[in-house]
Amino acid sequence: MTTSDEASDLARDLRRNLPAADKHLAMLHGRLAAAADAEGVLDIAYRTVDTPVGRLLLAATERGLVRVAYASEDHDAVLQTLAERISPRILHTPARLDAAAVELEEYFAGQRRAFDIPLDWRLTGGFRSTVLHHLATDLGYGQTASYGTVARLAGNPKAIRAVGTACATNPLPVVVPCHRVVRSDGSLGGYLGGLEAKRILLTLETAA
Amino acid sequence: MTESTSVMAACCVGARLAAVVRRGSRWRPSSKESSVTGSRNARSRRLLGVMQKRPFETVVTDHGATVLRVCLAVLGPTDADDAWSETFLSAMKAYPDLPVDANVEAWLVTIAHRKAIDVTRAAARRALPVDQVPDTAPVPSAESRDLDLVTAMGRLPPKQRQAVAYHYLAGLPYDEVAAIVGGTTDAARRAAADGIAALRRTYPTVADHDGVGDAAADDRAARKRGSSTARSSTVGVSR
């Protein structure tokens, strides 16, 4: 028997058996996630949700939602960063993000104007954190504000560029509404999820 | 967890073992490619040129199938799921302390080996009295060839079974197998060779009954015919 015969035999065995194995492993994975959660060793749970602005990654610690990421940010790279900055004990655990997923679904359906889920702010700090907290509390649904206005709100009117940086590095886009910050001339400015996503979000909020 | 999924998983390990027994070939895991996150991360790690601790999710997706096959081969379908779950839960607890350059699969197999011993001891403690024989026969099915192989595996002495599973299914070199099961590298190599030889002796007899259209059975039939065909051709059959 030649090596390629052996290889094709192996491949056939794999094809014949892997569908069952995948299903079985998915069941075991779910059981592991539940046990890890129950024993307090699931430091970060994550899932994805499909939305009008593309597939979003949602990640949560025991404190709350810690990261929302656009597909353009590369979800694998985002998870790797979470492993290094918070903990590598990360599992795909959709159940622990059910509440966040439901609120996002309601938001994109135009049925929710504010998010109630607990947030974990640990991926931001300093002035950026101050800026993002002001966005979350002072800049309501359907409103927009200029970078300069937000800088004043955050207590440092000259820090217009820093407001731009805070928005560009927002670990919780959509939920913390950096998309509501626009240029003083009314144009959109930039957005970490891409301008099309920013346009979709603002249109959604003015239509509802 | 249902009986049937265990059985299906047992078939999977049976097929893998069948390939090994048929050809003595070493199975190389291909699951490294299967992870959505895994391959991308591998690439970005190469780009960065540094070792990073990957999300535990990629450990499960990359090594979950191999660890399950090892648990099935060492423990059989009844206890494999529990051993798998215990292995990964323990591994997840210890994961932050694992050195970034550690051989993750060898580490997991080492944990699985210890968990399998725990499961076996627990099963022995709650064993039925000898006069209570289970009244259900092993599940016969279209996949019984593979199940028979798992059964044959279960009849091997533990050291042989472990050496076959860790070397042929997990792909660990014999020195690592020896480190896990104890003893010398040579002893581990001998145990695996003896185990494979024993499976080769028992497997064809338990497998031939459902060999219709089965490549493995055809192979074996061809081998059996081989000697007589050779003889008849030297003698020369007149037509």
What would you say this structure looks like, in words?
The complex is a heterodimer of chains A (208) and B (239). Chain A has a domain at 126-207: Arc Repressor Mutant, subunit A (Orthogonal Bundle). Chain A contains seven helices and six strands, in the order αβββαβααβααβα. Chain A has helices at 3-38, 75-85, 98-108, 126-138, 147-153, 160-168, 195-207; strands spanning 44-51, 54-60, 65-69, 90-92, 145-146, 181-182. In chain A, α4 crosses α6 and α5 crosses α6 (160-168). Chain A is globular and about 55 Å long. In chain A, 38% of the residues are buried. The model of chain A is unreliable at 1-20 (pLDDT under 50). Chain B has helices at 3-23, 36-48, 56-75, 77-94, 104-125, 144-154, 158-169, 174-181, 185-207, 215-235. The radius of gyration of chain B is 21 Å and the shape is globular. Chains A and B meet through α1, α2 and β4 of A and α1, α2, α3 and α4 of B.
* Chain-averaged pLDDT of chain A: 89
| CA distance, first residue to last residue of chain B | 61 Å
Based on the coordinates given, report the CATH architecture of the domain at 126-207 in chain A: Orthogonal Bundle
Largest beta-sheet details of chain A: 4 strands, mixed
Question: How much helical structure, as a percent, in the residues of chain A?
Answer: 40-55%
What percent of residues of chain A are in strands?
Answer: 5-15%
Largest interface between protein chains, with number of residues from each side: A-B, 42 and 41 residues
| Cα-to-Cα separation, first versus last residue of chain A | 69 Å
Mean pLDDT of chain B: 70
**Rg of chain B, alpha carbons:** 21 Å
Helix content of chain B: over 70%
Total number of distinct structural domains of chain B: 1
Order of helices and strands of chain A: HEEEHEHHEHHEH
Helical segment tally of chain B? 10
Shape of chain B: globular
Uncertain residue ranges of chain B: 1-5, 23-49, 131-143, 205-239
SS-based class of chain A = alpha/beta
DSSP summary, beta strand count of chain B: 0
Number of strands of chain A: 6
